Amino acid sequence: MKVYIEVTTWFKRFTGGNASLELEISEGTPVVEAVSSAGIPKEEIGFITVIKDNENKIVDDQYILTDGDRLKVYPAIIGG
Fold it and tell me: Under a CB-based contact definition with an 8 Å cutoff, are residues 65 and 4 in contact?
């Protein structure tokens, strides 16, 4: 199944400069495993959201992904 990951500028250094990725994952994969497989270190993740029913919801690390999920990964430190 496929999921889609969007990252902030902070994480582009782990994704080869890409702001978005498409991943092929196995059914039952937790969100943290999918994000880690994209090269993003768990210790740098602040939180992850999943867009469901046009709503962007924060999920925990063990949230089980479903086909077509769209994720957004935010760093532990966000400044301005």
Answer: no
What is the Cα–Cα distance from 40 to 9, expressed in whole angstroms? 12
The token pair that represents 37 in the structure block: 């497989």
2-75 classified as CATH 3.40.47.10? no
Model pLDDT for residues 22-62, shown as the tens digit of each residue: 999 999 999 999 999 999 999 999 999 999 888 899 999 99
Query: Where are the chain's structural domains?
Result: 2-75
Global model pTM greater than 0.90: no
| Cα–Cα separations (whole angstroms), residue 75 to 8, 19, 47, 51 | 8, 14, 7, 18
C-alpha dist (Å) from residue 17 to 7, 8, 20, 61 = 10, 10, 9, 24
Secondary structure element (H or E) that encloses residue 32, with its range: helix 31-37
